[in-house]
Amino acid sequence: MPKIAFIGAGSYGFTHKLLCDILSLESLRDSELAFMDVSKPRLEIARTIAAKYLESLGLKQKTTFTLNRKKALEGADFIINLVKVGFNEMAFMDLLLPKKHGLKQTIGDTCCLAGVFRALRTMPFCIELCWDVEEVSAPGAVVLNYTNPQSMLVMAVAAMSNVPFIGLCHSVQGSTRAIANYLGVPYDEMRFEAAGINHMSWVTRVEHKGKDLYPRLRKLVKERGIYGHKPKEDDPVQPFLGPARLDMLNRVGYVVTESSTHFPEYVPFYARTDELIEKYRVPIDQHMRNMERKEKASKELLKKLAKGELPPVHRSLEYGSQIMNSIVTGETACVYANVMNNGLITNLPSNSAVEVACLVNRNGVQPCYFGELPTQLAAMCQMNITVHQLAVEGILRGDKRYVNWALMMDPLTHSVLTIDQIESITDTLIKKQKSYLGKYLK
């Protein structure tokens, strides 16, 4: 049986969900499991959750709980990366300091100023993680990365390691379900195709029984307006189709896979001014509320476990367990993953990370050729890819000038801040986050 290592196992959002996914599959249920975190209290939470679920299923496989990364990685076939370098303290700093200068962000984990700084803290960790994988893990070990920002991490690792580092997200499968819900079409009967960059993939084809659904979708959005879609109270589909991305659909003709909460950070059109923020109902500082909600949910889960109330094991929309199952059994699966482009999307740079459909079997994760994105969509992606490339170079070269240049190119950042403000904030954040960035940026 394979060995699966969770790195950053104290994650509020993913460890419980991904563990349930693994335990729901016969091919993975008896896997050896290793859980690693730098925080002992968070590691104990993972221990409690894992112990209760394994006990409920009568499973007694080997489990390891450790603060030592190499110990967790030793002999691992699959590594699930869930780290948040700097925890909430640094993530909140990334949001609050720029806000004093007028730059208002919502999530800050993938783009804009906060996303770039999260990348700067995390790229070195991921590179070193993959070096450890090369040294101590099983031959052919695969890293399944759930840590944001996907694009910059994939690019940085590709420059420094040959370990398969697969960036995974749920925005494609979540968004296509939201489209099906909006149109009232059974999801299992709908065919779709998407491509782009993480959190800015574009659903380029939507069909039902051979019929193109886009004309109907565009017409409905025009009729209902951008505020006209809300999920039913019992609808699990998230993110739903909200104002910003319905507005973007009206303007460019296609649905973007990121929510109306997060998408406004990727472009300069929805959060540049307070008037726009109000018009498009952009929830500023949503990441802080998300963390409060996730922490509360984690505490509630622990209370239930203490009472012997175990939530049922059920499969989520995440692709990780599907990938592991396909590699172990040879069963074919199709997933969307973040990988180096290398000609997959022909009108985006080859030295960038893209999100495309991938075939998975015993041979691993094999990206599928997409071809050319509609020009307007490729242009939107390219605005962010330039930021990714410069930020990655900043870490690889150890030169903070590239960070300034990245933020000068960032669509929302440069629409709000002056060059002097960008450089001042960059200097301040690098100093305040010296323990994470000091040896990487000069």
Brief overview, please?
By secondary structure, the protein is α/β, with parallel strands linked by helices.
Can you walk through the features of this model?
The chain has 442 residues and is α/β, with parallel strands linked by helices. It has a domain at 3-86 and 112-168: Rossmann fold (3-Layer(aba) Sandwich), CATH 3.40.50. It has helices spanning 15-23, 40-56, 69-73, 87-99, 112-136, 150-160, 171-183, 214-224, 243-252, 274-279, 286-306, 320-329, 375-397, 401-409, 411-416, 419-432, 434-437, and strands at residues 3-7, 32-36, 63-66, 78-81, 142-145, 165-167, 190-197, 200-208, 211-212, 255-256, 333-340, 353-361, 364-367. The chain has a 6-stranded parallel sheet with strand order 3-2-1-4-5-6. Strands 7, 8, 9 and 10 form a 4-stranded antiparallel sheet that branches. The longest helix has 25 residues, at 112-136.
List the helices and strands and how they pair.
Elements: E1 3-7, H1 15-23, E2 32-36, H2 40-56, E3 63-66, H3 69-73, E4 78-81, H4 87-99, H5 112-136, E5 142-145, H6 150-160, E6 165-167, H7 171-183, E7 190-197, E8 200-208, E9 211-212, H8 214-224, H9 243-252, E10 255-256, H10 274-279, H11 286-306, H12 320-329, E11 333-340, E12 353-361, E13 364-367, H13 375-397, H14 401-409, H15 411-416, H16 419-432, H17 434-437
Parallel strand pairs: 1-2, 1-4, 2-3, 4-5, 5-6
Antiparallel strand pairs: 7-8, 8-9, 8-10, 11-12, 12-13
Helix pairs in contact: 1-2, 4-5, 5-6, 5-13, 6-13, 13-14, 14-16
